Amino acid sequence: xxxxSVIVDLTVLLGAALVLGALCERYRQxxxxxYLIAGMLLGPNALQWISKSSEVELLAELGVALLxxxxxxxxxxxxxxxxxxxxxxxxxxxxxxxxxxxxACAAALGLPGRTALVVGPILAxxxxxxxxRVLEARGELESLHGVQSLGILLLQDIAVIPCVLLATILAxxxxxxxxxxxxxxxxxxxxxxxxxxxxxxxxxxxxxxxxIGSVHxxxxxxxxxxxxxxxxxxxxxxxxxxxxxxxxxIAGMLLAESPFAAQVRADVSxxxxxxxxxxxxxxxxxxDPSWMLANWQIxxxxxxxxxxGKSIIAWGALRLFGVGAVCALATGxxxxxxxxxxxxxxxxxxxxxxSHDVFLLLVSSTLFTMLLTPYLVAVAPNxxxxxxxxxxxxxxxxxGPAHAASQGQVLVVGFGPAGRVVAEQVxxxxxxxxxxxxxxxxxxxxxxxGFMAFLGDGRHEDIxxxxxxxxxxxxxxTVPAPAIAIDIVRLVRIVAPDAVIVARSRYNRYxxxxxxxxxxxxxxxxxxxxxxxxxxxxxxxxxxxxPDEANPQELLENETE
Length: 561
Hints:
Blueprint: H1 5-26, H2 31-42, H3 54-72, H4 77-82, H5 84-108, H6 113-124, H7 128-137, H8 144-170, H9 177-211, H10 213-217, H11 219-239, H12 244-255, H13 261-284, H14 289-294, H15 296-319, H16 325-334, H17 342-349, H18 356-387, H19 401-405, E1 410-413, H20 417-428, E2 433-437, H21 440-448, E3 452-455, H22 461-466, E4 474-477, H23 482-495, E5 500-505, H24 511-517, E6 521-524, H25 525-544, H26 552-560
Parallel strand pairs: 1-2, 1-4, 2-3, 4-5, 5-6
């Protein structure tokens, strides 16, 4: 029966997360708050309905990795280079300054020197999963403060490696400078080899596999390929001693250079949702509600000091590298919580460097800052603008990843013969045209003709958003399969309610269904064929009649009589 314990824990966790997440959404709160509360209530320190097994913790870590894998699919090396200097410089200053201030405060409060050295890095890290999840849900991942937050969070994920090594060495009595240097050298060598392996696999191998006709034609095989790609990157990073999340992000970013990125992202989205929900619930299970209630006088000022201190330090770090004051402060507010990877260091130092009460204080502070993160991210632009008396300055949201490259006026879904004619004639009429097509050969053909083309299935919301459907003034659905066309029209009407939808109906009997799905104009092929055929007949008759003869319509009427 023990082997079924993880299934029981998962079922209970997800059930509670569903109920509390739905309640939070009902009252206009983030579902993440519900997930954290669900784990806290059902955890071993409260109702004890879940055993907090290691299997659940593993699934939680996979959730973070898959979240970063899908985020990486929206980025490219060029975009990372564009924000690299600020992320590298500002992120480094933020980590070092926060760790130094945190260690100094811990020492001032009477903690031993080795303990203070561990507490500093614990406080310096922010929650990649929480911040990116909220920014993505709010559509602010491409805002200026969203981009800066992502850059610093990725640098923090890299910094997890030396931070964990530091905690491990300090927890050992025989830790020395030589052992620290040796461990760091081994970690860097393994990281370099892992990065090289990821580059080879996701640049040369995975895109070729996805181009195989039998794989691409089968939805099951393409989904399995996407899952194996993401999980394989996680395993490789873990074996190399890297942060699994960082390895997954690098893999996603490498795969983002291929035309399959959007479809892969859609394929793993359901799995990512499952694991990320488990992650937040399992993190909540670490909390001890009774201890929190008994020690709220300590927790409250600690949380306030963390949010204010981390916000100000991040603001100063970004200002050193030329980031606007409002954007820098908004980024600092977004990064003001303690991160999930801090739990690794907390667990390593527990019982040796960190006492039980300090452990509970760190865990409680982390949970409360995570609970506040959805609200902090939501108010960050307005609060920073208000405090700096320049509300909204530098806070414009450019749009999603695809939007930066293309502000399309017309999106044509399907690039078969009909879609090609529509795209070429609309472009000749002076409109910008983007293409969404499932067949990679047709995508390549569209790009050769100068169109911005995206590969993916239009029945997925993520794919439509990636193709810029929200920026399209009109969406033309030329897909011949009636059921697929109806699904696409219905989804476009939901995600882009202001767009004009023109749809193709291959058979007359599907006209009303496309109209009911939300299409503004439906072109019925059978009716159009009948009109064209009758026109051809009239033109042929007109070509042979004499000047004195009646017009073709009259001739047809006479012959009919």
